[in-house]
Specification:
About 45% of the residues lie in helices and about 20% in strands. It is α+β, with helices and mostly antiparallel strands. Among the domains are: about 90 residues, Pdz3 Domain; about 80 residues, PDZ domain (Pdz3 Domain), CATH 2.30.42.10.
Amino acid sequence: MRVLQVILALSVLILFHELGHYIWARIFRIRVDKFFLFFDVGGFKLFSFKIGETEYGMGWLPLGGYCKIAGMVDESMDTEALMQEPKPWEFRTHPAWQRLLVMAGGVINNFILALLLFIGILAGWGRNYMPNESAVYVNELGEQLGFRTGDRILRFDDYVPTDFMNLQADLARRQVRKATVLRGTDTLDIYIDQALIGEVINSPGVFDIALPFVVDSVMVSSPNAGSALCVGDRIVGVMGESTPYLQDAQKVLRAHPGESVSVTVLREADTLAIPLQVDSLGMLGVFFRNPSLSHRDYTVLEAIPAGCSWAWESVAGYLRDLRLVATPSTGAYKSVGSFVAIGQVFPTSWNWLQFLYIVALLSIMLGVMNLLPIPALDGGHIVFCLYEMVTGRKPSDRFLMVAQMIGMFLILALMFLAFGNDIARLIR
């Protein structure tokens, strides 16, 4: 199911991106020679058909797609066509502002697609979030950073985080230098060691929610179905060890599979000792009270500005991610992944909400990546057009060919890094 979702998501993203180039080219009467989903490497293709001057089809290699525009220096490296006299329908004979819009069309479409998806998600499903009102349960890295289980995070530098689920991402993306927390009744400042930011990126679970172990119900099949446990009981100790939070109790219980244990329970004003049976998996067979998620529904009109805000937050977040990747000391480059990593993001079963949300995020990522001023990417071509518009001097075809080759080399190097990271993660 994940493979199917990845192929479908990439197909949608590629078609929308390339359609942006295609539409602007046709608006300015620039000929489009080929419009392909996936690459037809070696001339092999699953199917194709021709309408007018354009060949439409599907290649066999699902690593992208392309819109081959006549008279343009692109990844096809078609030098023969560039040796001929420029034709009025070719890309190179049109004004720089028109060529800029053609090159920006793919990115514009990516952002439009993400915006429409965010608006649709809000209008159709609303949005869940967890207010940043709970204490954190930290792992070893969290303690090394200076946080303690039970802290409530108030600020990261001057930023006030509002969504508990984004705390770790906010800490890394913003390269926080000072965190302000409420510890008991005291407000403390924690100064973050910047050398550990890279570990924050690659270490899940720095901040979990510090969840009291409050019994919601006992499973019918539980070995403790007939025990003295009651709804609302809070387990605060196991085998004489203090377990103020669920995670603490889980650690102790996993050490006593299949055994009978004594647990300390708070029931209103009373403290009780109750014997319970641990199953073979180290669990008691009870449901605990989960933290409540906040939910907001949106009308279509309300979803439009909220969707724009969500899209902008996603763009800003991804730009911060790129800054981290471009800073070797953070080690964020180790998190760069290829299609393998993308596949792991999708759920194992079909879920429309998650699928559309992931596609929206990937569309943002594709749009931002293509805006990077690297030759062979749309951003590189846009920079050359802007240079021409400002100076009045057009880069030569030879210069563009060399720049294209350099850009393709950089992209291949990035792909090797991504695949290498994926292989390393699979091995580990």
